[in-house]
C-alpha cells in the first residue's frame, strides 16, 4: 500500500486482484471490488467504507481504505 501511494497513485488493474488486499476476502458477484481513491489499491466494501477529502481530487469526500482514512484524518 505504501509503495502504491508513493509511486504516482495509479489504480491497480481489476484483473490483477482477486481478493481484498486487507482482509483477503475473495471477490464475487456479491462481494464487489472498490478502489481506494487515495492509494489506488482494491478492497472489499467493509475495508473501504469510509470517506475522506483526498488531495488533488474532488472537494467532496471520496471512498478510501481504512489505512488511508487514518492517514488522511489524523
From TrEMBL:
Keywords: Metal-binding, Zinc, Zinc-finger
Keyword presence, Zinc-finger: yes
GO molecular function per UniProt: zinc ion binding
Transmembrane parts of this sequence: none
InterPro entries in UniProt: FYVE-type_Zinc_Finger, Znf_FYVE, Znf_FYVE-rel, Znf_FYVE_PHD, Znf_RING/FYVE/PHD
Keyword Membrane in record: no
FYVE-type domain mapped to chain residues: 14-73
PANTHER family: ARRESTIN DOMAIN-CONTAINING PROTEIN D, ZINC FINGER FYVE DOMAIN-CONTAINING PROTEIN 21
Protein's name in the database: FYVE-type domain-containing protein
Organism of this sequence: Rotaria magnacalcarata
Amino acid at each position: 500500500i505504501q509503495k502504491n501511494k508513493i509511486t504516482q497513485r495509479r489504480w491497480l488493474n481489476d484483473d490483477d486482484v482477486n481478493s481484498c488486499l486487507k482482509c483477503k476476502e475473495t471477490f464475487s458477484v456479491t462481494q464487489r471490488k472498490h478502489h481506494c481513491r487515495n492509494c489506488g489499491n482494491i478492497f472489499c466494501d467493509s475495508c473501504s467504507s469510509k470517506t475522506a477529502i483526498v488531495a488533488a481530487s474532488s472537494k467532496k469526500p471520496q471512498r478510501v481504505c481504512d489505512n488511508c482514512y487514518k492517514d488522511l484524518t489524523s
